[in-house]
Amino acid sequence: MDYWNIYKDVWNFHKKYADVKEDDAYWEAVVNESNQIAKQYGECKFVINLLLAVIDELERIYKEMKNNADARI
């Protein structure tokens, strides 16, 4: 298994999408690129778990942004 390139690609994915957006195009890009990375590595469980961890973190940030925006209203 090519761990170093998996980590590199998932890290680059995380960096690219770390500035969480509220629009559908952002989330569509997140899903599409994560699927592409998973396929690149044969959809092995390790890469899928790393990608899911990043997506979970992006969703956590998104929910926090929404809660903070709702609190200001």
Could you characterize what this model shows?
With 73 residues, the protein is mostly helical. The chain is built from three helices and no strands. Helix 1 (3-17) packs antiparallel against helix 2 (24-40), helix 1 packs parallel to helix 3 (45-72) and helix 2 (24-40) packs antiparallel against helix 3. 14% of the residues are buried.
N→C terminal distance: 49 Å
Per DSSP, the total helix count is 3
Question: How much of the sequence is in beta strands?
Answer: under 5%
Q: Give the CA-based shape.
A: elongated
Number of domains: 1
What is the H/E order?
HHH
Mean pLDDT: 94
Query: Radius of gyration over alpha carbons?
Result: 14 Å
Helix share bin: over 70%
Instruction: Name the poorly predicted regions.
Output: none
Compute the number of strand runs. 0
Which class of secondary structure composition applies to the elements?
A: mainly alpha
Brief descriptors of the model:
73 residues; mainly alpha; 0% strand; elongated
Brief write-up:
This protein has three helices and no strands. It has helices at residues 3-17, 24-40, 45-72.
Q: Secondary-structure blueprint of this entry?
A:
Elements: H1 3-17, H2 24-40, H3 45-72
